[in-house]
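BUG-132 | component: ligand-complex export | severity: low

The export step for tetrahydrodeoxyuridine jobs runs without errors, but we want the raw record kept on the ticket for reference. Input record follows.
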Amino acid sequence: MDKKSAAGLMAAAIKARENAYAPYSGFSVGAAVLCGDGSVYTGCNVENASYPCGICAERTAVSKAVSDGRRSFVACAVTGSSAEKCTPCGVCRQFLYEFAPEMTVLCGNKEGEYDEITLSELLPRGFGASSM
Ligand code: THU
């Protein structure tokens, strides 16, 4: 994707990270998804005292978009609150794959420096509707 769109999407993810609720891990994550119609939805991680109930930033963002009628996704930016560039966890890779196996993923660190990769590289031979 072009540099300007990528930088804008990462900036939205960084802003969303401010709302992360991560009292247990102390690791804040923000995500922003770019939809096929140009709209952008953001999300953050929301943890819970019952740890498995927590949800990642990427799934928050995608769920907000889908519940608003969006199902086409071009890209997802994710940024964690550390110097390491944050890649989507395995569950989020599968969640994203459901809607856009070919989407672009921007994996960012706390400063917003990022690597661009495709979801199919992160989840090769992923399982989806066309696998059945
Ligand atoms: N986390 C995300 O929000 N997205 C990822 O893809 C990686 C992990 C969150 C989950 C948990 O709240 C915290 O980071 C530590 O694992």
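Assignee comment: Attached the raw record above. Residues 22, 25, 27, 29, 45, 47, 54, 56-58, 88-89, 92 surround tetrahydrodeoxyuridine (CB under 6 Å).
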